[in-house]
């Protein structure tokens, strides 16, 4: 009781105590406000992600012509949270796990890409003939095209034509086609949404379907949870001091000790 009376009778000490309480309450309120803002931000991100995936499920491949004449195909990207996968999303990811031999938890996997390619091709090959005997001729076919940027096509083949009493007999036809197709892709954020773009210089090649899935882990980006508890440390500050004569005074202090801080006091 004497200590309390001394504190209440000392205006400076009372002012300091009230000020310290105000600061602690202010820090607590700031901490609660910060946590609330973080929760609202996570909720908004989840809402935006779900809306984006809905639009991506309704989107289809769009094709445009670039300045160099190449066709560019694009489609809206998905974004899945690994901690909140739905049944339909798990089934969609299943085909990638099986085809690419990806680990079960998709650990360290950031992006999944797929493309369905259609090729409509036609060519006119040069032909040379070699007389094998009086009734048999060998025809050789060859055609090479360089479309630039690593895209090319090489056709080679041959067949035998034999003259018979009834006409001609074709046999031993063999054709080899060596195609080199180079694909260029990018993920561009347009209008707040990621768009997958794919292009190639190979003529007659179109993308009937393309798909991009961005994988994120929200838990790894969450704000660390504050916990109350005991700690050992060095304390330096200004406040109330109780000396050996049991006299309370105000002033600077320094010491080493064991401290306990409640959760709401940690910042």
How does this model look, in words?
It is a single chain. With 267 residues, the protein is of the alpha+beta class. The protein has two domains: 2-41 and 224-265, no CATH class; 61-222, no CATH class. It has three helices and 13 strands, in the order H-H-E-E-E-H-E-E-E-E-E-E-E-E-E-E. The strands form four sheets. A four-stranded antiparallel β-sheet has the order 1-2-10-9. A hairpin with a 5-residue loop joins strand 12 (229-242) and strand 13. The two termini are 33 Å apart.
Provide a count of the helices.
Answer: 3
How much of the residues is beta strand, in percent? over 45%
Structural class based on helices, strands and sheet pairing: alpha+beta
Low-confidence stretches: none
Report mean pLDDT, rounded to a whole number: 81
Distance between the termini: 33 Å
Strand order of the largest sheet: 1-2-10-9
Q: What does the main sheet amount to?
A: 4 strands, antiparallel
Helical content (DSSP H or I, runs of 4+): 25-40%
What is Rg? Answer: 38 Å
What is the string of SSEs from the N terminus onward? Answer: HHEEEHEEEEEEEEEE
Query: What number of structural domains do the residues give?
Result: 2
Q: Shape from CA axes?
A: rod-shaped
Count of DSSP E strands? 13
């Amino acid at each position: 009781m004497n200590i309390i009376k001394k504190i209440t009778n000392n205006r400076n000490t009372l002012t300091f105590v009230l000020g310290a309480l105000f600061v602690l309450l202010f820090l607590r309120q700031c901490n609660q406000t910060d946590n609330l803002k973080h929760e609202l931000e996570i909720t908004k991100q989840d809402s935006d992600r779900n809306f984006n995936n809905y639009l991506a499920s309704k989107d289809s491949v769009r094709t445009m012509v670039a300045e160099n004449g190449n066709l560019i195909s694009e489609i809206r990207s998905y974004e899945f949270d690994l901690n909140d996968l739905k049944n339909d999303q798990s089934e969609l990811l299943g085909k990638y796990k099986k085809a690419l031999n990806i680990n079960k938890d998709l650990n360290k996997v950031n992006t999944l890409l797929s493309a369905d390619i259609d090729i409509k091709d036609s060519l006119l090959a040069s032909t040379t003939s070699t007389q094998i005997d009086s009734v048999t001729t060998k025809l050789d076919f060859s055609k090479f095209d360089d479309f630039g940027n690593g895209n090319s096509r090489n056709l080679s083949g041959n067949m035998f034509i034999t003259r018979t009493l009834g006409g001609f007999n074709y046999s031993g036809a063999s054709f080899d086609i060596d195609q080199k197709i180079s694909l260029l892709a990018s993920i561009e954020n347009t209008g707040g949404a990621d768009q997958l773009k794919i292009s190639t210089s190979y003529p007659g090649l179109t993308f009937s379907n393309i798909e991009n899935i961005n994988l994120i882990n929200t838990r790894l980006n969450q704000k660390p949870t504050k916990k109350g508890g005991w700690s050992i440390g060095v304390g330096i500050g200004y406040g109330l001091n109780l000396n050996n004569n049991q006299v309370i005074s105000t002033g600077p202090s320094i010491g080493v000790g064991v401290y306990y801080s409640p959760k709401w006091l940690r910042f």
